[in-house]
Specification:
The structure is a single chain. 44% of the residues lie in helices and 18% in strands. By secondary structure, it is α/β, with parallel strands linked by helices. It has 2 domains: 158 residues, Alpha-Beta Plaits (2-Layer Sandwich), CATH 3.30.70; 210 residues, Rossmann fold, CATH 3.40.50. The chain is elongated and about 85 Å long.
Length: 381
């Protein structure tokens, strides 16, 4: 029978994007050691024992199947991944990431490679303050005092400031904090597939465009000049109704929303397909509607070369799409990029998926998730 053990870790950073590094470290801790049960607030302190940039510190509680020695090995691997290599003569110095085992159950461990409880924790406010957030009554097995009492008696006079930013215990809770993510792209880019995979993996409410139900679409691909205006007006009406209904209706059993379109695509496609006088009329109607709809926290645009788009369109075999030509797809791509020039940079992410197969290659899918995750963390930190 597998028995989970409780351990408390201290994490810190004073190089680079410190909040980003702490959050990525937590995701790695989950991946390599076990479930995180609690995470403290973030605290900023001056460097301890040497002069350098201020540190951000936090503490986490984990449930792990690893022995103390294996836990230490996993921690060292994580630190190495973030660019830190420990050595015996390291001393006090700046670091991208520092992870220490503070407690492992109530075990007392003293070996050539590991000492638990952490031998200097009682002297360091940057450990004790976040530790008190998550385990104020945990008794030190040697000092026989709980965390609050040790903190009160600590002689460390360092100024410590609590940050307003928060850390998430895992990727699911982080993605939930994004509230609404839109996956966009040209025809055949894979936006529906990606949105569906994200919804399945992260318990999101999935909002899909009902493009197949539009009665003008097959006719449009046969005679674009004749059917462009009724097609675009029909799309706009359908998208606006569906979009407002779906984004305004909360689903208590879902963590956030992910869609395979953003309603702004209506203006992008209409600018390509409509005559100028038709487009001006269309834009007036669109602008009125667009003010009322929910905007995504993160707008992801999947870029594919037009040659690859044509290949994928043919593969999925929808009869009415088979006559789409290269120039039309190129105009749509340009329309999206013109739109992105006006969209807030902190909310837009362009991912080139021309060489990726995130349907059959799990590594490519993970690559895309990491890009979304890293972008969102950097923009929010």
């Amino acid at each position: 029978m597998r028995v989970y053990k409780s351990a408390f870790l201290s994490i810190g950073s004073n190089l680079g994007n410190r909040e980003f590094l702490l959050q990525k470290a937590i995701f790695e801790i989950v991946k390599k050691t076990g479930e995180i049960k609690q995470v403290s607030a973030i605290y900023e302190t001056t460097s301890w024992g040497f002069k350098a940039e201020d540190f951000l510190n936090a503490c986490v509680e984990i449930q792990t199947l690893l022995t103390p020695e294996n836990l230490l090995s996993a921690i060292l691997e994580i630190e190495k991944k973030f660019g830190r290599l420990r050595n015996d003569s390291e001393g006090y110095q700046s670091r991208t990431l520092d992870i220490d085992i503070i407690y492992y159950e109530k075990d007392i461990i003293e070996t050539s490679i590991l000492t638990v409880p952490h031998p200097k924790m009682q002297d360091r406010k940057f450990i004790l303050k976040p530790l008190a957030d998550i385990t104020p009554q945990f008794y030190h097995p040697i000092l026989n005092k709980d965390t609050r009492n040790i903190l009160q008696e600590c002689k460390d006079k360092s100024v410590i400031t609590r940050s307003t930013k928060k850390l998430f215990i895992n990727r699911h809770s982080f993605f939930a904090s994004l509230e609404y993510v839109a996956i966009e792209g040209n025809i055949g880019a894979g936006k529906t597939t990606l949105a569906t995979k994200i919804a399945d993996d992260f318990n999101a409410k999935l909002i899909l465009e009902r493009f197949a139900e539009n009665p003008f679409l097959p006719s449009f691909y046969e005679d674009q000049a004749r059917y462009a205006f009724p097609l675009e007006m029909s799309f706009l009406a359908d998208r606006y109704q569906q979009f407002t209904e779906d984004t305004n209706q909360l689903d208590l059993f879902k963590s956030f929303m992910v869609s395979d379109y953003d309603i702004y695509k209506s203006l992008i496609f209409s600018k390509v397909t409509l005559q100028q006088n038709e487009f001006e009329l269309y834009r007036k109607v669109f602008n009125f509607m667009y003010k009322e709809v929910k905007k995504p926290r993160i707008y992801v645009y999947l870029y594919q070369t037009t040659e690859r788009l044509l290949q994928q369109i043919k593969q999925r075999g929808r009869d009415y799409e088979q006559n789409i030509d290269l120039s039309y797809l190129e105009r749509i791509n340009r329309g999206y990029f013109d739109f992105l020039k006006t969209y807030p940079k902190e909310n837009q992410l362009v991912i080139n998926v021309s060489e990726l197969d995130f349907v059959s290659q799990k590594s490519d899918y993970k690559n895309i998730l990491t890009q979304i995750e890293d972008f969102a963390l950097a923009s929010l930190s």
